[in-house]
Amino acid sequence: MPQLNPNPWFFTMIMSWTIFLLLIQPKLLSFTHMNLPSNKTLSTPNPTPWTWPWT
């Protein structure tokens, strides 16, 4: 069964992971986020109580 022969596919898998880890991943991690969660101001909402008409 030739599907079990790892010779041509193992090298392809190793090279694809190497390319991903060394080239693509640092480029993706270098992007800055536009909306950082630390820049948001924390404000507590001041809810007004609801007046129910039947009470």
Automatic annotation (TrEMBL):
Keyword terms: ATP synthesis, CF(0), Hydrogen ion transport, Ion transport, Membrane, Mitochondrion, Transmembrane, Transmembrane helix, Transport
One example of a Gene Ontology biological process annotation: proton motive force-driven ATP synthesis
Gene Ontology cellular component terms for the protein in this record: mitochondrial membrane; proton-transporting ATP synthase complex
InterPro entries: ATP8_metazoa, ATPase_protein_8
GO molecular function: proton transmembrane transporter activity
Bilayer topology term: Single-pass membrane protein
Pfam families: ATP-synt_8
Location(s) in or outside the cell: Mitochondrion membrane
Transmembrane segments: 6-24
Oxidoreductase in keyword set: no
Record-stated family: Belongs to the ATPase protein 8 family.
Entry protein name: ATP synthase complex subunit 8
Organism: Rhea pennata
